[in-house]
């Protein structure tokens, strides 16, 4: 089965590197027009653009996903230049500083929520305003295994990802009868520049592998290709209101692989 997104207009936030970049490239390879968004890494956005190539219709926008006025401007620009949107990938996010709640800096905690949860809400809200009236569209939020797995020292990150997951389920109840699908893709440990300190350190990598039944990290292309399947009519047309985990089995409690 060939997954074909020809004629679809897609917007991927946080697509200047890592998972977002891979998703943007995969969508373009499947035939979609792609909007690339970046916050500070303009060079990375340029690399995404170059990798996609000139044969694909693209647009590059810069700014902060946690500023609702900027987000609205992006969507207005898409309306003006492309006449609407078919696929919105809510990917932009940050881990934040590792700190316990008792020792946490309030501004740091709020910053993670502002980008990961509120920023996601702002973009999803604008996307739905365009998709519901035409009764067509897909919203895919990139969450994390930590929407389900707790992580000491990263409570803001976990709370934000779990929040997006529950937002997704609630929105599916609101809009599924309008032929708009809303779902999440939750990666596990994916090899990117952000976690290079882990996969280049043998001790840390061994520890990480012990948490993954498949005993390896994932690759960004694996997430990009799965995203294409989920937003496509051919493979994902009956999927909404749920999270698809791409984690090598990390959420299956690998410490129970033997004994109990």
Q: What is the strand and helix layout of this fold?
A:
Blueprint: E1 9-12, H1 18-29, E2 33-38, H2 42-52, E3 58-62, H3 68-82, E4 87-90, H4 106-134, E5 137-142, H5 155-175, E6 180-187, H6 196-199, H7 202-209, H8 220-231, H9 233-236, E7 243-246
Parallel strand pairs: 1-2, 1-4, 2-3, 4-5, 5-6, 6-7
- The share of residues in extended strands comes to 5-15%
Number of helices: 9
Would you tell me which CATH topology applies? Rossmann fold
Total beta strands = 7
User: SS-based structural class?
Assistant: alpha/beta
What best-fitting shape do the alpha-carbon axes yield?
globular
Poorly predicted runs are none
Helicity range of the residues?
Answer: 40-55%
What is the correct CATH architecture? Answer: 3-Layer(aba) Sandwich
Summarize the helix and strand pattern as letters: EHEHEHEHEHEHHHHE
Please describe the biggest sheet, giving its number of strands, its sense, and whether it closes into a barrel.
7 strands, parallel
What is the CATH homology-level superfamily?
A: NAD(P)-binding Rossmann-like Domain
Spatial strand order of the main sheet: 3-2-1-4-5-6-7
Q: Give the termini distance in whole angstroms.
A: 42 Å
Can you give the mean pLDDT? 97
Kindly provide the name of the CATH class: Alpha Beta
- Rg on CA atoms, Å: 18 Å
Domains, number? 1
